[in-house]
Design a protein that fits this description.
The protein has helices spanning 3-13, 53-61, 64-67, 149-152, 170-175, 205-211, 309-313, and strands at 70-77, 80-87, 92-99, 107-115, 118-126, 144-146, 177-184, 187-192, 218-224, 230-238, 252-254, 265-267, 273-274, 280-288, 304-306. It is an alpha+beta fold and 316 residues long.
């Protein structure tokens, strides 16, 4: 088993990279100071390849509060979940990530605390092959590893850039909207071009390459709160070789143990699941508690150790 490869592919499998803010939204601005990109064109709804200008602009505007850097979030994809909070006023963030499950070959949980300029990560391993991880006894599992910033600079798995605050990359993703429409009060649906987010890092480039032309029209749904702030963004990534299905209120993609490898099942009305043609993998990001996140707390000194070389090797 190649543990280094596990680390890289597991984070990539999450598609959205939750342990860093890999998007173009910048921090350090005052509330309301962030400019919102204008929706290009004002094409009528239903025009081929065009976005409804009002709907797209509402979605672009919805990410302004994220740029202020004071919120809680969750992220989920097939085989991985993350939750945490960003608190720019204290230059701190905390993210908890789970990849895999106990029945997997290898499961990893990470509790990451960032208080500028320091970072700590507590890792735990599970799964049927956890005992065979090279250097396992030197990994100080269950302790908070204090990280050497010179060794994690540019490392998207372990670092956090307080100039780029959005772990979900929603600002970049919404800029890639190619069609949008309002489906209800605070609810939207449409398609977006995820290839536009590749350089920003909010979607794994390998996934975009595999999707090919389908990357240019990935279905999404979104919800805004009563103040017009983004509360939920769901991408429905088509499995390779399948056409992207249109967003539907009665067919929601869900992970399924009965789906073929690399696929998700689609929940039909009444809870039935199907896999195959039109199958998708769902990526969901939620935001909440705008303006009410709390500062991350430094771990107790008796639970902290300096990270050994073997720990950094896991994330190369």
């Amino acid at each position: 088993m190649n543990v280094r490869r596990f680390s890289a592919t597991a984070f990539a499998a999450a598609l959205l990279i939750p342990s860093v803010a890999a998007c173009n939204s910048t921090g350090g601005t005052e509330a309301g100071a962030s400019a919102t990109p204008a929706a290009s064109g004002d094409a009528s709804p239903g025009a081929s390849g065009a976005a409804n200008g009002d709907a797209k602009q509402a979605l672009l505007d919805s990410t302004n509060a994220i740029r202020e850097g004071n919120f809680k979030f969750t992220m989920s994809a097939v085989g991985s979940t993350a939750e945490g909070q960003v608190h720019q006023p204290s230059q701190s963030a905390q993210i908890k990530l789970t990849i895999g499950q106990q029945s997997s070959d290898l499961m990893m949980t990470l509790d990451m605390i960032h208080i500028k300029p320091d970072s700590w990560v507590k890792a735990d391993l599970g799964g049927t092959s956890a005992g065979s991880v090279p250097g396992l006894q030197k990994l100080n599992l269950g302790k908070y590893q204090h990280l050497d910033q010179t060794r994690i600079k540019g490392n998207r798995n372990l670092g956090f850039d307080f100039e780029k605050l959005d772990p979900g990359g929603s600002a970049v993703l919404t800029q890639g909207i190619t069609e949008a429409r309002q489906t209800g009060e605070g609810s939207y649906a449409g398609t977006l071009d995820v290839s536009k987010a590749a350089e920003a890092g909010s979607v794994d480039p390998a996934v975009i390459t595999t999707l090919g032309a389908q990357a240019q029209s990935v279905p999404f749904t979104a919800k805004l709160d009563t103040e017009g702030r983004l509360s939920e963004l769901v991408l429905k990534i088509p499995t390779v070789g399948q056409s992207a299905p249109a967003p539907s209120a009665t067919a929601v993609p869900v992970p399924s143990a009965t789906a073929a490898p690399g696929e998700s099942a689609t929940a039909a009305p009444g809870g039935a699941s199907t896999a195959g043609a039109g199958a998708t993998e769902e990526i969901k990001v939620t935001y909440s508690d705008y303006g009410n996140a709390s500062a991350a707390q430094q771990p107790p000194a008796d639970q902290v150790v300096e990270a050994p070389p073997e720990f950094y090797n896991l994330f190369r």
